[in-house]
Amino acid sequence: MNCCECSRDWRTKLKLHRTQWLKVVSAVVLLLAVAACNKKKPTPPTPIPPTSAPAPKATLTATPNTIAPGQAALLSWSTDFASEISIDGIGKVDPSGATKVTPNESTTYHLVAKNDTGTAEATARITVSSGVTATSPPAGSSTTDSSNASLFSQNMKDVFFAYDSYEISPQAEAVISSNAKFLQQHSGVTFIIEGHCDERGSIEYNLTLGEYRANAAKQALVQQGVSATRIRTISYGKEKPSCSESTEACWQQNRRAHFVYSK
């Protein structure tokens, strides 16, 4: 075999080897592409449904419920988790409160409490009867009640909470102890604990958090010997702030359990 033939033979082998190598590379690339196409896509996470506000609750009472013509009665109401409250004949009202009414005839008062979740209704009927004699309250009772209310507001201090928490802190425990001591000395007093939050978070979340804070303060007082029958709780969430500035100092003032004299 001469040199020219050897050269041709070497080039032919090289070309064949290169062709085989390209076929192998192409096959590997094809396999990788098929594997990538068949790779299972990760399942997207299930979205968490938004937390809905608890259904509203409402009570409405009239004291007394039977009166003489021209006599006044006290209409009292309380609601939980409501964003809109109204009473027929009176209009929009606060979540809890009381007002004097003097109907000319027997009247059924109708309260409607609403939020995004639903509606709660309550009624109270006042009967106007000519056979009833109007009576005056015992002398001094109004003065005594006013005095108790003043003492209550002076001695019952708010309990404050950390951000996104309803735990009673060591500082709050000292306030609870002082409040419990006053309540034990005034065993006839009944009251409401309002749960409040700062402006951060949704209305629904803060209504729930406010309820937890009010109940935490209630349980702490019960553990100190205050009867649970004297206590009612309500949550206002972030709807009734004591401070309106968007600062940490202001938010701290709004994260509280507030005590309101009832009787």
Q: If you had to describe this structure to a student in words, what would you say it looks like?
A:
With 263 residues, the protein is α+β, with helices and mostly antiparallel strands. It folds into two domains: 57-128, Immunoglobulin-like (Sandwich); 141-261, OmpA-like domain (60s Ribosomal Protein L30, Chain: A, 2-Layer Sandwich), CATH 3.30.1330. Helices cover 36% and strands 26% of the residues. The chain is built from five helices and twelve strands. A hairpin with a 4-residue loop joins strand 7 (107-114) and strand 8 (119-128). 25% of the residues are buried. The mean pLDDT is 82.
Which secondary structure elements does this structure contain, and how are they paired or packed?
Elements: H1 3-38, E1 57-63, E2 66-67, E3 73-80, E4 84-87, E5 91-92, E6 96-101, E7 107-114, E8 119-128, H2 141-155, E9 159-160, H3 170-185, E10 191-196, H4 203-223, E11 231-237, H5 248-254, E12 256-261
Parallel strand pairs: 2-8, 10-11
Antiparallel strand pairs: 1-3, 3-6, 4-5, 4-7, 7-8, 9-12, 10-12
